[in-house]
Amino acid sequence: MINIQEKISLKAYNTFGIDVKAKHFVTMSSTAEIIEFCSKHLKDYQKHLILGGGSNILFTKDFDGIVVKIENKSIEIIEEDEKHVFVKAAAGEIWDELAKYCVMRNYGGIENLSNIPGTVGAAPVQNIGAYGVEFKDAFVQLEAIEIITGKTQTFSKNECEFGYRKSIFKDRLKGRYVITSVVLRLTKHPVLSTEYGSIKEELSKMNITDPGIHDIRQAVINIRSAKLPDPDIIGNAGSFFKNPVVENKKLESLKQRYPGIPSYKQDENNVKLAAGWLIDQCGWKGKSIGNAGVHKDQALVIVNHGDASGKEILSLADNIRDSVFEKFRIQLTPEVNIV
After folding, report:
1. How do 48-51 and 75-80 pair as beta strands?
2. Phi, psi of 300 (to 5 degrees)
3. Between β-strands 152-156 and 139-146, what pairing exists: parallel, antiparallel or unpaired?
4. What percent of the chain lies above the pLDDT cut of 70?
5. Which fold has domain 235-338?
6. How far apart are CA 135 and CA 182, in angstroms?
């Protein structure tokens, strides 16, 4: 039986630890429940929010609608051949549990995405990525329920319109579908991606000279654990801003003033800059305003030192954006969803 609760605190359901209330709240523990609720009830609410792990969201006020917490779980192999295996995972699965499942079976493709917080259903919305790999690289298709009709629809990779930290579900179809499962294609003969970031350096520290995907996963976990604070200890949502993409001529102009500026080739005409470096150059690392602050070891992470409100954290983020624009004439865009 579907149990709809009223006036529920969302503090335990977001990694920033922001204490706001939802007018209505419901947990969905199976795909059948999700289908039933979407087809019969969800359209009756003027406002709704689909919530996974709450690791990429900033609440700035109470939510005057219904919050639907997706917790359906399953991982299964639905097809395989000599080279590939197709894995279907429910939207409520913890993303890193799926990454672990694949690595333990030597299925390659998402080991670089280890230790990313959140659920499987949130991964395509954001097109999560790390260390040279994006979710879309392994993606085949997903199933989602259209809220208006209650009908289940399958979306292919092209139909998802993936981009840098975005998809059709974050833009054009935002709020119109509830994702219930995804299918990934993994390889039985993994090709390692070690060129991005500090993976090679970490493997060297681990005394690994001939790495496999288990080693890549552990290296990524080590790196992320060292530079990103544990939200169970201090409230945060990981990287608050996207790394900005600029044209090559903009980079050349910046290099004249900042020769050491890090950059990563995006395509023939554009490069990606490190938002954390830009923020650090503006002197924000370790700074606090009230209970909201910038992490002492990673300038890209905004933290809740205590009982900061969502508005306090957003105000700090706005100040950071303003100072980066003033110094570099680059506009930072939040990666975190602001509600």
Report:
1. unpaired
2. -80, -10
3. antiparallel
4. 99
5. 3.90.78
6. 11
The residues facing 155 across adjacent strands are: 142
| One-letter-per-residue 3-state SS of 133-168 | EEHHHCEEEEEEEECCCCCEEEEEHHHHCCECCECC
pTM more than 0.70: yes
The amino acid at residue 161 is E
Q: Which two tokens stand for residue 121?
A: 């259903």
Tell me if the domain spanning 75-187 has CATH number 2.40.420.20: no
For residue 217, what are its two tokens? 């996963």
Spans of all domains in the chain: 5-70, 75-187, 235-338
150 phi-psi bin (left φ>0, alpha ψ -120 to 50, beta other): left
Look up residue 190 and give its amino acid.
P
Instruction: Name the residues annotated as catalytic.
Output: 165, 239, 335
Q: How far apart are CA 325 and CA 62, in angstroms?
A: 31
> Is-contact 179 160, C-beta < 8 A?
no
Say yes or no to pLDDT of 205 above 80.
yes
In the three-class reduction of DSSP (H, G, I as helix; E, B as strand; rest coil), residue 13 is classed as helix
CATH code for the domain defined by 5-70: 3.30.43.10
Best CA proximity match to 63, nearest among 27, 10, 17, 26: 10
